[in-house]
Write a structure and sequence with these properties.
- The chain has 51 residues and is mostly beta strands.
- It has a domain at 2-36.
- The chain contains 1 helix and 2 strands.
- The chain has a two-stranded antiparallel sheet with strand order 1-2.
- It starts with a helix and ends in a 19-residue tail after the last strand.
Length: 51
């Protein structure tokens, strides 16, 4: 979770609906955040030069 907090420091979450029935619970939520960092996903990393 450290990388998430470093690139989305201002995240806010809003619970829209909470439905409970017996032993089951369903939550519908909305998240708002701003990307404020440089995080390189392993797929997007530059390839190293090979000799």
């Amino acid at each position: 979770m450290g990388w998430f907090r470093s690139v989305f420091p201002d995240d806010e979450w809003q619970l829209d609906d909470v439905i409970e029935q017996g032993h089951k619970l369903v939550v519908r939520y909305t998240g708002y955040m701003t990307y404020k960092g440089v995080h390189q996903h392993p797929i997007n990393r530059p390839k190293s030069k090979r000799n």
